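Hi U.,

Before I forget, here's the chain from the pilot set. I'm dumping it here mostly so it's searchable later in email.
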Amino acid sequence: MESRLIVLAFEGASTAEGVLANLKELEAEGALKLKDAVIASRPGAADRIFMNPAMGSGSGTMASGTGVPAGQATAPEAEITQTDSRRGRYALAGGGIGVLIGTVLGGPIGGLTVGLIAGALRDRGLSDKFVKELSATLRPDTSAVFLLIESVDAEKALAQIRPFNAKVLNTNLPPDVEEKLRQALKNE
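Structure:
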């Protein structure tokens, strides 16, 4: 079965983390099987103060090329958290393969290093580029969870997500199914 991509956005920089924790409980119960999950959050202005690095020292001037008045705070970049622990297993597998190749080629330590790096960097789920691009659109004090789902008990998952007022940002669902999801998540 093809994995389904669903990206949900929430008010609050830490809300997506809580939603994912609830979904992980469903996964432990067998009601959900995730292939990959990533959390992105953008802190609000009250959480942190970020200054424009290109700001000038004079008041009333614009920071070069930014359109932001010099000295004003700018929105922080989105923080992305890869939540899939399976990368460690790939690193170990890559390390084992690297040792074998390195032994044959005369350098087991170099082979181990190359194998560990290759295994750890294997992107087997959500595209890092896609996650970064969509995360850049988050407003301050919001968060998103990127889910790559292999199987799901939809009613149980919706019951966990609905109270958080999720907004659908992106899916690979057929348009009619995506619209049903949007309607099901409306907290009326």
